[in-house]
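call fold(seq) -> tokens
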Amino acid sequence: MTLYIKAGPDGKSVGDCPFAHYVRIVLHEKGLEYDVRPSTQDTKPQWLIDYYEGSMPALRHRKECYTESDVIAQYLDFFFQEPPLSGKKKLMAATQEAIDGFFPAVAKYLKHTPDGDDDDAALKQNLEGVLGRIEQHLSEKSGPFLVGDGAEFTLADASLAPKLFHMQVGLQKFKDNAINVSEQFPAVQEYMTAIFDRPSFKETLYPEETVVWGWSNAREN
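ret:
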């Protein structure tokens, strides 16, 4: 089993892609062995370019290849069922509704320059609105996770955790912590503290500097 992912600034280390991080968390939770191949536009395999438009993350297993993080995660959860990471459909749907639009809101805010202008303020307000929705969702849970009563870690948690990490680093580096998560959204902060301490997250994590590198490039384009 081989996972092709975006490379870091040296072209060889693990890059900053939160979607690849999501897949690696799932692989870790399942206890699966795999090779990780950080790749640049110049070093990704030709077959990946020819048949899959170079899309990453890409998981090659046996003779098949799967792209798109959700597709890969669902494939892994279907064929490697322990521990199960897919909650009941209705509960997963409710969670998805709560977190829908989060990463697009993060990306638009972090990429925007100049910081502090009227458009920046509107993008900040938009992200705060999504965080408020997640705050409400988490406040209704008795356990630490997203789905149902929050008792079980699911694909939703594996997906959201890397995106929250990007938000945390980006707010500190680029936005002078204009959104104070711990004060404005305490349930989100508590969730972040717990999920960032999970072994599957910590053991697949890349340095904050890699996140800064990625968003710095995005802000220049």
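The beta strands are 2-6, 35-39, 58-61, 64-67.
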